[in-house]
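Why do we care about 3D structure at all? Because function follows from shape, and shape follows, mostly, from sequence. That is the central idea of this module. The next example makes it concrete: a single protein chain, its amino acid sequence, and then its structure expressed as tokens.
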Amino acid sequence: MRKKHTRMDTSQFGSGVPPREQFQTTIWSEVIRAGDANDAQSAEALEKLCQNYWFPIYAYVRRRGHDAHEAQDLTQGFFSLLLEKNYLRTADHSKGKFRSFLINAVKWHLANEWDRANAKKRGGDSVVFSLDEDEAEERYQHEPPSEAEPEQAYDRQWARAILEQVMSRLRNEFANDASAERFDLLVSAMMGKSDAQPYAEIARQLNLSEGAVKSAVRRMRQRLGELFRAEIAATVATVSEIDEETRYLLSLLRD
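And the structure:
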């Protein structure tokens, strides 16, 4: 099934900074754990990283001129090498964003180690996660044809990966006190989708007042902004980087 991308308006995000404890358990914590062969949860942590961030890597490799099958091998091989060579142990969160660390690692490997045969050989018996080539290529073909630069494709897909994780968390939170239909109607209105129904119609379907619907959308928008900024906080080294990274990724989601 073709994945639909969501465009966002940056006005729905507040300027509040996630609490300091947000930095105690971040994506960098998962990176360190994934690179620790002595950690019993290392494989689980690495699989989580792979599942969340494989497509930005795949899009980048495709933009570098590799065909779909090569990109699949190279993407799976890349994550396998992260584990095999223990490269994650060299990741230094104090030097900046996890997004930057990952793309630099991919560039280094493509330039110095890989051709298609080696990627298949290295990834063959130690595949960390299963990549569905049909799904990957369908998603890739849905990308804007004008987006020619590999780095731009990578950053855009990174932003979308962040958004997908945030929307999943938001859905899980609202699942406790709202039906799937209610959530979808409110999200459609919140995101300003072209096919979103008017507030009055949503209110009629949900048997609520129009004012209640607007309040619910406003609360959802506020929570979305909090979750988005918290997710960004988990991928940067310092609090001061949150605003810059948030603005940059949101600019990609607006396009």
